[in-house]
Specification:
Oligomer: single chain
Strand order of the largest sheet: 2-1-3-6-7
Radius of gyration: 26 Å
Bound molecules: calcium ion
Length: 228
Amino acid sequence: MPHILLLEDDPAIARTVAYALERDGLGVTHALLLADARRQIAARTFDLLLLDVGLPDGSGLDLCREVRAAGHVPVLMLSARGEELDRVLGLELGADDYMAKPFSPRELVARVKALLRRSAAPAAVQSAAAPRHGFVDDAAGQRITLHGTALPLTRREYRLLRCLLARPGRICSREMLLADAWGDDTDSTDRTVDTHVKTLRAKLREAAPQADYIVTHRGMGYSLELPK
Ligand code: CA
């Protein structure tokens, strides 16, 4: 469950906002003061910050600047005055969105969810699915994507690349590739491997012209070289 820090010194507004967010399945921690919000941020991580601008002990804009300097967490600024200056400053300081009071709680929840989706998507791809080199083997779909784009591989090419991907930087002999990618197909020979490596290489070049992934080791086989 995404957890949101709500910094708002007006208890009535805070209650309304917290209620609307919680009803939509979001967790909310409420801070009344800037100092309180700083303590909360130091104590745990939040998925999004909702920051009021005008607070008894300072400006939410200062906190926005601080969290931006520390790293990326989506920030939505709230302002009582609806002043254009707050809006401009908030966005300049790195806030992702801005709402002027009075706002509809429903609209606020919609914007919060949009920001959460936006921040979750690239992070998920980077950490879980796609390593830095960009190859992802979608075994269930029998395909491999490179930087998010599916490579137009035949079944043999797919198995060949999968075999090389499993041992990056190491030489795979033709016999090994034959056994892995062709299995029991006894009609295949070393030449078959060479032919398929050639077409695979052409497809990789088309997808990433600047890279040279497959290296030929004369008399030994092939290896897949991934950028560090
Ligand atoms: Ca306020």
